[in-house]
Amino acid sequence: MAKSISELARAGGVGVETVRYYQRRGLIFDPKPGERREGGRRHYGDDDVARLRFIRSAQRAGFTLDEIAGLIAPETTRLEARALARGRIATLDEQIAQMQAARVWLGQLADECAASNVGPCPIIAAFDA
Length: 129
What we know:
The protein is mostly helical. It has 2 domains: 1-76, Multidrug-efflux Transporter Regulator, Chain: A, Domain 2; 78-129. The chain has 6 helices and no strands. Helix 1 packs parallel to helix 3 (46-60).
């Protein structure tokens, strides 16, 4: 069933401008004038909805749009997809380590802040430095 761009966006859980952005990035195809209907309006099919949902799922997994473009490229092999996934896992591991360190540090600052009401707040002072 043909969908308008707003119906495509709604089906994918994004805004129309996001769909247009993905089109500019080459992630979703922009129907050519000869493929349009009803006065030149763009129409999309179930394959476009599936691709949009794929993009959103890959983003939730932490992939960048450039990495997603690599995943959806027809010439991408399983080996290349696996390498992209392993690279993404390594990046996520680094981010998790950074966030855990930040959590420890903030916990220490909150404890210092709670220990006394005298002087400047250790939390604010830490970010002021």
